[in-house]
Write a structure and sequence with these properties.
Elements (H helix, E strand, L loop, with lengths): L7 H14 L4 E3 L5 E3 L1 H14 L6 E7 L3 E2 L8 E4 L14 E2 L3 E3 L5 E3 L3 E7 L2 H10 L1
Antiparallel strand pairs: 1-2, 2-3, 3-9, 4-8, 5-9, 6-7, 7-8
């Protein structure tokens, strides 16, 4: 996992998304985690992904209320918390990344309850090609 530094434009887009999510429809996954309606989030998320160099990546926006293990995610996932992350809250080993991500001393990463974030994955074809090349 690596930190991505957001431009001021990307931070503004995240702020706009955070405000918009208050009125976006959600669907519960049965465990208390909420997936936000894709078409409502799309106008905010696509410019964010483009700004951070992930154009054309697929995404979902979730509010997680349960924990999951980072290493158990299916392949490469870029998690973009929907908040402004201060310098003091970066994902250093043993420290917390504000609003949910935690890197333990042993390097494992978990996501603790109550994290609203964009979960972005590379386009399937590009990911399959990269894995085939080794």
């Amino acid at each position: 996992m690596a930190d991505t530094y957001l431009s001021e434009d990307a931070k503004k887009l995240l702020d706009d998304l955070a405000l918009a999510l208050r009125s976006v429809k959600t669907q519960d996954d049965g465990n208390g985690n909420l997936e936000y309606e894709h078409k409502s989030a799309k106008p905010f998320v696509e410019p964010i992904l483009k700004t951070i160099g992930l154009p054309d990546w697929n995404f979902t926006v979730w509010m997680w209320n349960t924990s999951f293990k980072w290493q158990e995610l299916p392949g490469p996932v870029n998690i973009i918390p929907i908040c402004n992350i201060t310098e003091s809250a970066r994902s250093e080993p043993g420290g917390a990344l504000k609003f949910g991500l935690m890197r333990r001393i042993d390097g494992k990463v978990t996501v603790e309850p109550r994290l609203t974030a964009i979960f972005a994955v590379p386009p399937i074809a590009r990911y399959v090609d990269a894995r085939a090349r080794g």
